[in-house]
Structure formats: structure tokens, C-alpha cells
Design goal:
Blueprint: H1 6-9, E1 14-19, H2 28-32, E2 38-43, E3 46-51, E4 54-59, H3 66-75, E5 80-84, H4 96-116, E6 121-125, H5 132-144, E7 150-154, E8 156-157, E9 160-161, H6 168-177, E10 180-184, H7 199-218, H8 221-224, E11 230-232, H9 243-252, H10 254-257, E12 273-275, H11 281-291, E13 296-297, H12 313-317, H13 322-337
């Protein structure tokens, strides 16, 4: 589907972690009569994300205008962006039928964006994981009809860990469909207790991603579904850097940790991917040493401030050698997504 000349592949970049939203959305709070669904209002040259009737965030045009996005991709030498929705739009808290409606709206928008620029974009879908049957049906539509290689999901579903057995039919269906999963932190634990200093984003998000990884390891997800292709955002959060503590806890208190899976956590290294968004060369060196050069994919969190503003610049500045550099900049992403360019 995505065809490139060999010469272009020499300098290709696939950014697996970018977010997009439609320029125009229904006001679902008014339509459904409850909740704080996000919609976008354009006011005095500003695009305002409204949460119900309250301002949530002001976003720039690159969050929803494809031409602006492509120009910035060209300016930063990004060949392909993998598009996913903004996590606040998951709407897992809503009624299942309403969550399905919003998911379908965002998936159709991403699919349309990809269809207009198939050489520049790859789309990931979103599904209403508050209802597993509906989530599986929408995943099937994303893969079979919209030709998406994967989905983005949250690090927890309404407070429930990704290890919960209720999600196993979803993982089974994803494995059978060959549907990749990108796990992104959201609804960070303890968020209401640390609003000052932007701590939910600086502290909560790394912990939330580690929560997701540990849950899937200790819950036996990777053992039960060995062909499931999962990538985690933000360099795996705090997981790689606290792996020693996690393993030690597994060893000394198996009665608390190994209750659902007796396989040591370090045995799962190499079984999943993570993006490269760590902002620091020493952290990147450690990430490569722990996770392996085959399991790290370029990810920038475009177009938000906490992202890498020139995607891949950290990797390029580290002079890792062409072989490793190519893996991190695009080859590992192709493996995770199972796409050929």
C-alpha cells in the first residue's frame, strides 16, 4: 500500500506517535445530554478544545489541518506519520453506544486523511473498550474496511488494568486480525492530587505507562497472546528505568507479584516495542541497552509541546551507526505495524 523508492528508504523516518483531531466535531454533550465530550470551537483565530462547556485546551492548526502538518513534516524530514486520536477523545467513560459513535467518527476522519495522503500517513483507530463486543466489531471494521494496521488504546480502561481478564477476548481478536496496539497513557493515577507543576504529565504519565506494561506482563497477556504486537508511548515511561526494582519485587515477593504469571518480567524484554520519546541521550542509551535496538521506534508526540520538536534529532545526534539508526527511524516501525513501504 505504501510504496517508496529504495533511495528514499535510505533516509526515511516513520513517526509512530502523532495525534490528530477533526477540524469540526459534533457537540456530543448537547446531543447525548450528559458528560463532558470534547468538541472544537473556532474563536477569534484560535481553535479551542471545549470539554462540555469549559475550555480544555487551545490547539494550533497543525492539530487538524493536513496541509500544515505535511509542511511541518517536510521541514523536519519526517516521511510518514502514524496518526492516532488524542487520548482525551477515547470517551471510555461514556455509554457504550455513544462511545462507538464517537470512535467511528474519529476513525472515519483518520481513514479519510490517510486516503488523501497515503504516502505520508498511516492511521490507527480507536475503539469503545468499555464494551468488549463493540470494541472488537469496530476493530474489525478498522482493519478490514478502513485498512488500518492497528489501534491506539489507553493505559487503563476506566481505572481497570489492561491485565483484566475481560480484555482477553479483545487481545485474542487483535492477535487473529494481526492488529497492532499502541498503548498511550491517559487518566493518570493520582492526577487529582498533583495538579500543580504539570505533575500529571511529568510524573503521572511515565508511571501510568509502566502500570500498563507491568499489568500486561504480570497478567500473562504476552504469554497468552505471543503474536500480539504492542508498542508503548514515551519510551515505556518509567518501566525501563525501574526494571531492576520490578524484577527484585518479583523475586522477593512472588506471593504478591507472581500471582497470575510465574515468568520473570525480564523474560519479556524483546516481546514488545516502545517509542523513542525520552528527550535525553543517556536515557536513550539505557533504553537501547535494556530493550534492544530492534524494539524502539521513532515517536515524537507531534504536535504537542512535550514532544520532540524535530523528530529523530536525538537519535541522529547520537551517531549510533547507520544500521541502528535505520532500525530506530523506520525499520522497527515497519516490523511493529507489519507494513511494507
Amino acid at each position: 500500500m505504501y510504496l517508496y523508492f529504495a533511495a528514499l528508504r535510505e533516509n526515511m523516518k516513520i513517526d509512530i506517535h502523532t495525534h490528530i483531531m477533526p477540524e469540526h466535531m459534533p457537540n456530543w454533550t448537547q446531543k447525548f445530554g450528559y458528560g463532558e465530550f470534547i468538541h472544537l470551537e473556532h474563536r477569534n483565530c484560535e481553535a479551542c478544545m471545549m470539554k462540555g462547556d469549559k475550555l480544555f485546551r487551545v490547539v494550533e492548526e497543525n492539530c487538524f489541518k493536513e496541509d500544515k502538518r505535511i509542511k511541518e513534516m517536510d521541514d523536519t524530514d519526517v516521511t510518514i506519520q502514524v496518526l492516532s486520536t488524542i487520548p482525551v477523545l477515547f470517551n471510555y467513560w461514556s455509554k457504550p453506544s455513544d462511545g462507538l459513535e464517537t470512535s467511528r467518527f474519529f476513525n472515519d476522519h483518520i481513514s479519510e486523511t490517510v486516503s488523501k495522503n497515503p504516502k505520508r500517513f498511516i492511521g490507527l483507530g480507536t475503539v469503545p473498550l468499555q464494551d468488549i463486543d463493540l470494541a472488537i466489531k469496530e476493530m474489525e471494521r478498522c482493519v478490514k474496511e478502513l485498512k488500518m494496521p492497528g489501534l491506539e488504546i489507553g493505559s487503563n480502561i476506566n481505572g481497570e488494568n489492561l491485565s483484566d481478564k475481560k480484555f482477553f477476548p479483545f487481545y485474542e481478536a487483535a492477535e487473529k486480525l494481526g492488529c497492532a496496539l499502541f498503548v498511550h497513557p491517559w487518566e493518570m493515577m493520582g492526577e487529582d492530587k498533583m495538579q500543580k507543576y504539570w505533575l500529571p504529565w511529568l510524573v503521572g504519565m511515565p508511571a501510568e505507562t509502566s502500570r500498563a506494561i507491568c499489568s500486561m506482563i504480570f497478567g500473562g497477556v504476552f504469554t497468552a497472546f505471543p503474536k500480539l504486537r504492542v508498542a508503548f508511548a514515551h519510551g515505556g515511561g518509567s518501566f525501563p528505568f525501574t526494571l531492576g526494582r520490578i524484577k527484585h519485587g518479583f523475586d522477593v515477593r512472588p506471593d504478591l507479584v507472581a500471582v497470575d504469571n510465574s515468568i520473570s518480567p525480564e523474560k519479556y524484554l524483546g516481546k514488545f516495542w516502545m517509542d523513542s520519546l525520552v528527550h535525553d541521550k543517556n536515557a536513550m542509551k539505557y533504553l537501547i541497552n535494556v530493550m534492544g535496538e530492534d524494539k524502539i521506534c521513532l515517536g515524537s508526540d507531534y504536535p504537542f509541546p512535550l514532544g520532540e520538536h524535530k523528530p529523530g534529532r536525538l537519535i541522529e545526534k547520537m551517531k549510533l551507526g547507520k544500521k541502528i539508526e535505520k532500525k530506530l527511524l523506520y525499520k522497527n516501525a515497519e516490523e511493529w505495524l507489519s507494513t511494507t513501504h
